[in-house]
Amino acid sequence: LSLPASPLLAVMESMAVSTSVMGSADEFDRNVPRICGVCGDKATGFHFNAMTCEGCKGFFRRSMKRKATFTCPFNGSCTITKDNRRHCQACRLKRCVEIGMMKEFILTDEEVQRKKDLIMKRKEEEALREASRPRLSEEQSRVISMLVEAHRKTYDDSYSDFKQFRPPVREGPVTRSASRAASLNSLSNLSDASSDSFSQSPESVDMKLMNFSNLLAMYQGNSPEPQKDPTGLSMLPHLADLVSYSIQKVIGFAKMIPGFRDLTADDQIALLKSSAIEIIMLRSNQSFNLEDMSWTCGSPDFKYCINDVTRAGHTMELLEPLVKFQVNLKKLNLDEEEHVLLMAICLLSPDRPGVQDHARIEALQDKLSEILQDYIRVHRRSRLLYAKMIQKLADLRSLNEEHSKQYRCLSFQPEHSTQLTPLVLEVFGSEVS
């Protein structure tokens, strides 16, 4: 038989709290000491509508259940303290009533048992939910840690290396001396950096993709002096160095993706050439500022707006969708783990032009995609987040295609192609398809 429903019990069950319900006043300032309103002892919470200690709570419950009647041996006005509260039960009970304790708040034995059963049931349900909650495996956590470490090693959020590039010129032509000196210094620095992070094996992807010493000699011996740019592309030398530097960092990141270096050198090169600009666009989202739609990379000299990129020869056919992409990606509020997983998934795309071992690359990408989905589930993010992230990869393909068109327009004009770095010419100049 079901017991009569008690409105009080219903409220208490819905809140799933114990008889020691914390009052709203207590919630406002947890630092204020709680004092029992009956005896002055340390209170444990609101009991039967008043702030009391455990001793006075039990005394009031027993007294009400027994319907006890007490008589004060004195004049009925005893002061109740922690030490003498047992001496006069009459004045103690009187004090309980005075501070607002009500017998209507006392549960019957049946109600107490029902509440205990309810609490136990909810504990079991919570334990079951905890046991069934998705968790990342040790292997998945290891892969994420490796990707995060790879990104941190190849992305300098202080942007200190930008000082090595040919200086940004937002107005007027590029001077010969400043452009050439900074360009050669930049290329030399990239060459030094590559010797530490790339394998020297003749068959390695690094040697097949670039030989910095030869490139430096070629640039110093055969390339003409940078000329004044009559078309006004004053930012092209600086941004060419920035892109060249970013390609270097993308290669370093790729080398640390689990499984990437197990691919053939030709497949590594095909993936890098096809995806480099997409990874750069993903990486640049860290410096993208929603407030003024700019890429802020440290000092004011390295704060880039749309006009700066147009001064490097790109048009709004690329820049408008690029800014839209950056805004939408920024609004996803990806954490670092999600960001690096998306970059790795983007790079390991089996449908890139020139790829030979499609099955192997697809298996690597599928593994990373599964890790990303599990990561999102574990951290209770939006169920739509994964789909939104994958959509960004489709957007990047369109941006990549438009970038290739505009790059070809630049590279076919000698006065502009001489401003590009050998690495940019190597990666973007030789079409895989």
Task: Describe, in plain words, how this protein is organized in 3D.
This protein is mainly alpha-helical. Among the domains are: 45-101, Erythroid Transcription Factor GATA-1, Chain A; 138-170 and 232-428, Retinoid X Receptor. It is built from 18 helices and five strands. The protein has helices at residues 7-15, 24-28, 54-66, 89-98, 109-132, 138-154, 176-197, 205-209, 212-221, 236-255, 265-283, 306-310, 316-331, 336-347, 358-378, 385-411, 414-417, 422-429; strands at 45-47, 50-52, 288-289, 294-296, 303-304. The radius of gyration is 35 Å and the shape is elongated. The termini are far apart. Keywords: Cytoplasm, DNA-binding, Metal-binding, Nucleus, Receptor, Transcription, Transcription regulation, Zinc, Zinc-finger. Belongs to the nuclear hormone receptor family. NR1 subfamily. It is found in: Cytoplasm; Nucleus. GO terms for molecular function: nuclear receptor activity; RNA polymerase II cis-regulatory region sequence-specific DNA binding; vitamin D binding; zinc ion binding.
